């Protein structure tokens, strides 16, 4: 039986192919949005905010961004973000981070802006690592945007290995100051977003030196530019690092110090301190100064899930209006979305977007618990969350990159045009594989945790394993996949456990053969990263199942169950070789998984457009609206892509004149010469 849901947002004049899709949906997209965003209130607020933004012309792009130069992009993103700043108090609840995040992505898009890091990486470390007194001094000013800041950690020579950062902060007993210094070119800060041209403050990570002893990376509040003139302060060299693959509306920068002095009170000292006489007060956890990175990583699953969801919204809508080729009926070409290959390209990625967003909820909540615990001095949760978020950040960024690239290819030629907006989304999202910890490096961090856990299990201490890794001690009992999701989890647990054990045993064998610990680790690194990926994918599957279990609305639960089954079969198929290898999975089971996968694609087909509509991205957010000016056009909610692609092309600066200088200066003379 199909429940017919009349989508309230079907509009007159929409492309009939899309209207037809929306009519076949078996669920209410507003209800689904509540599940995606976690509450009726937030889903509703997002719609209200989008609506309010659409009525303010100055918050729209003034030109299609791909046609702008780098300087124009920065000017435009700054214009928008400052205009937005003026409107913000009327549009959102200023204390609600989700509302703020939504409105910024809507107005700014993926190109970045000079304030992006201020909120995500300048204020949070100040909150986490700053004392009450330091909050008093800087936090209010930062929140009011009297000062603009960034997070300056990475250097030209070091990003992953932060223990080897070369920027020094040497304590001067005589003046009670820290002297910041960049001893070599390699030690220049390099990459920090918004540092290059916009920020006048930075949280700088530098190696703390007291009486010639290096205490490792610490965080310092540093004013880098004059608040009046915006000129760099004496002793500071700062600038932009040049154009990047994407994110060119932001000014990632470099920064060098020439014996630049800051007061002792600028060491962010909620958890550690340097006393007047140079006595160092240790933090409660060795890696306390890394807590800000856990925070950002904990938010990456949800963030990347929505990045992928935007690319998929564009690709799925387009696939429902793009007609090409025939199936049975030779009188009308089919929507490309009807091809099984197209569905296989897009639907598993839709499932992953949902999975990442659900998983993101859990990690954000876990971080909030950690933050509360840390505030009361309990750091026992840090190691677990560091391991978990290290794996999640790596898996979701990689799979998001894959999903967005598939979305681009699914749009054929038009996907390659910047009119699709997909290349911009890709460029921004894929940066996540590198920033906040390069993926391999982070997978190896999780592997340390897995190896230790396997060692505990091997020593017969399974009781000491945390809930996340308890399965490493479970016995192997064959499963019948027909029985449902739990059996899939057990199969995945077996695969993940076996890989963790295999990698650990290999590591042990290498050491027993006389290879040093570090060398042995390196010789097992690929196997170790495999274990980390499997463990993380298992965790994501489990969060998906938990979320679907918790849903009460039947129509929503049914379609999410289809999506979850697709996810389970797709993921298991992808790693099946691990289970076939030791005979835990039979070839019959493999066939079963494939058939389940194909049948999931068919089940999802009528709901595909509504599943992406449910993310409720506005046309402005997808840079697909023509309301005020010409924007990218492929993901338009109304589905009128062709005429708008033509408008877009006409607006290209190249078409503002019929004969270009390239022709008069070079081609014409060449052709004339050839005639002689
Ligand atoms: C790879 C590590 C973790 C290694 O650190 P290390 O001090 O050399 O550590 P080690 O001696 O090898 O010991 C590892 C040990 O330290 C633990 N650990 C490491 N990090 C944490 C943590 N956050 N919480 C709790 N524990 C932590 C690990 O679990 C290890 O513990 P173990 O020895 O196994 O018991 C570190 O260097 C690191 O985090 N590197 C990545 C750098 C990074 O993420 N940079 C981000 C810059 S900001 C940015 O990119 C902004 C992007 C823009 C945007 O978001 O939009
Ligand atoms: C868009 C963007 C925004 C950024 N924003 C900021 C910012 O705001 N502030 C800031 O401080 N930084 C920022 N960064 C810098 C970013 O955090 C670093 O680039 C990142 O941490 C990776 O470090 P790296 O560049 O040193 O890479 P490298 O470590 O040099 O990586 C190169 C290769 O070496 C491998 N490798 C390195 N170490 C190991 C190891 N131990 N084991 C195995 N393989 C290894 C890596 O896997 C990789 O394949 C940003 C970067 C980007 C791309």
Automatic annotation (TrEMBL):
Pathway: Lipid metabolism; peroxisomal fatty acid beta-oxidation. Keywords: ATP-binding, FAD, Fatty acid metabolism, Flavoprotein, Lipid metabolism, Nucleotide-binding, Oxidoreductase, Peroxisome. One of its GO terms (biological process) is lipid homeostasis. Its main location: other. Residues 290-451 form the Acyl-CoA oxidase C-alpha1 domain. It holds the Pfam family ACOX_C_alpha1. One of its GO terms (cellular component) is peroxisome. Residues 485-672 form the Acyl-CoA oxidase C-terminal domain. InterPro entries: ACOX_C_alpha1 (IPR055060), Acyl-CoA_ox_N (IPR029320), Acyl-CoA_Oxase/DH_mid-dom_sf (IPR046373), Acyl-CoA_oxidase (IPR012258), Acyl-CoA_oxidase_C (IPR002655), AcylCo_DH-like_C (IPR036250), AcylCoA_DH/ox_N_sf (IPR037069), AcylCoA_DH/oxidase_NM_dom_sf (IPR009100). It comes from the Eukaryota. Belongs to the acyl-CoA oxidase family. This is Acyl-coenzyme A oxidase. It comes from Caenorhabditis brenneri.
């Amino acid at each position: 039986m199909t429940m017919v849901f009349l989508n309230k947002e079907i509009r007159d004049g929409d492309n009939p192919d899309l209207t037809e899709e929306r009519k076949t949906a078996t669920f209410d997209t507003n209800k689904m949005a509540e599940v995606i965003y976690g509450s009726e209130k937030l889903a509703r607020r997002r719609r209200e905010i989008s609506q309010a933004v659409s009525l303010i012309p100055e918050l729209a792009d003034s030109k299609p961004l791909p046609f702008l130069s780098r300087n124009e992009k920065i000017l435009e993103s700054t214009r928008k973000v400052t205009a937005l700043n003026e409107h913000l108090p009327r549009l959102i609840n200023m204390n609600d981070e989700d509302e703020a995040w939504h409105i910024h992505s809507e107005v700014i898009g993926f190109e970045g802006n000079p304030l992006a890091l201020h909120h995500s990486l300048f204020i949070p470390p100040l909150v986490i690592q700053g004392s009450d007194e330091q909050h008093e001094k800087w936090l209010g000013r930062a929140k009011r945007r009297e000062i603009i800041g960034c997070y300056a950690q990475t250097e030209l020579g070091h990003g992953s290995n932060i223990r080897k950062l070369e920027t020094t902060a040497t304590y001067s007993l005589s003046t009670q100051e820290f002297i910041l210094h960049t001893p070599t070119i390699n030690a220049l800060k390099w990459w920090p977003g918004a540092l290059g041209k916009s920020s006048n403050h930075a949280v700088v990570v530098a190696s703390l030196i007291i009486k010639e002893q290096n205490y490792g990376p610490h965080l310092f509040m540093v004013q880098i530019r004059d608040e009046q003139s915006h000129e760099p302060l004496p002793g500071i060299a700062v600038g932009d690092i040049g154009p990047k693959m994407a994110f060119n509306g932001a000014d990632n920068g470099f920064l060098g110090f020439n014996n630049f002095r800051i007061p002792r009170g600028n060491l962010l000292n909620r958890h550690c301190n340097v006393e007047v006489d140079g006595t160092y007060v240790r933090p409660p956890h060795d890696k306390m100064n890394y807590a800000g990175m856990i925070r950002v990583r904990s938010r990456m699953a949800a963030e990347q899930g929505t990045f992928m969801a935007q690319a998929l919204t564009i690709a799925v809508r387009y696939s429902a209006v793009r007609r090409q080729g025939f199936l049975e009926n030779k009188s009308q070409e089919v929507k490309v979305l009807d091809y099984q290959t197209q569905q296989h390209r897009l639907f598993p990625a839709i499932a992953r977007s949902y999975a990442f967003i659900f998983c993101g909820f859990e990690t954000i909540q876990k971080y909030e618990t950690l933050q509360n615990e840390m505030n009361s001095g309990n750091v026992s949760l840090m190691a677990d969350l560091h391991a978990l978020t290290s794996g999640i950040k790596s898996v979701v960024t990689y799979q998001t990159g894959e999903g967005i690239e598939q979305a681009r290819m699914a749009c054929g030629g038009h996907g390659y045009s910047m009119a699709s907006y997909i290349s911009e989304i890709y460029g921004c999202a894929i940066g996540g594989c590198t920033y906040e910890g390069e993926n391999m490096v982070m997978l190896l961090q999780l592997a340390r945790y897995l190896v230790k856990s396997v060692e505990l299990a091997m020593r017969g201490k399974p009781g000491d394993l945390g809930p996340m890794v308890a399965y490493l001690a479970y016995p192997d009992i064959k499963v019948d996949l027909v029985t449902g999701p739990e059996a899939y989890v057990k199969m995945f647990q077996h695969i993940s456990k076996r890989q963790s054990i295999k990698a650990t045993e290999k590591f042990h064998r290498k050491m027993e053969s006389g290879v040093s610990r570090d060398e042995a680790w390196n010789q097992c690194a690929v196997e170790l990263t495999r274990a980390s990926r499997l463990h993380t994918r298992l965790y994501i599957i489990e969060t998906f199942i938990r979320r679907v279990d918790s849903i009460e609305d039947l129509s929503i639960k049914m379609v999410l169950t289809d999506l979850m089954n697709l996810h389970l079969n797709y993921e298991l198929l992808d790693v099946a070789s691990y289970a076939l290898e030791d005979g835990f999975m039979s070839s019959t089971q493999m066939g079963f998984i494939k058939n389940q996968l194909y049948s999931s694609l068919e089940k999802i087909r009528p709901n595909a457009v509504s599943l992406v509509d449910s993310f409720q991205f506005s046309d402005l957010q997808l840079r697909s609206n023509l309301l005020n000016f010409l924007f990218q056009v492929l993901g338009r909610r109304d589905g009128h892509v062709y005429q708008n692609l033509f408008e877009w092309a006409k607006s290209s600066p190249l078409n503002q004149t019929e004969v270009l200088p390239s022709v008069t200066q070079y081609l014409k003379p060449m052709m004339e010469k050839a005639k002689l």
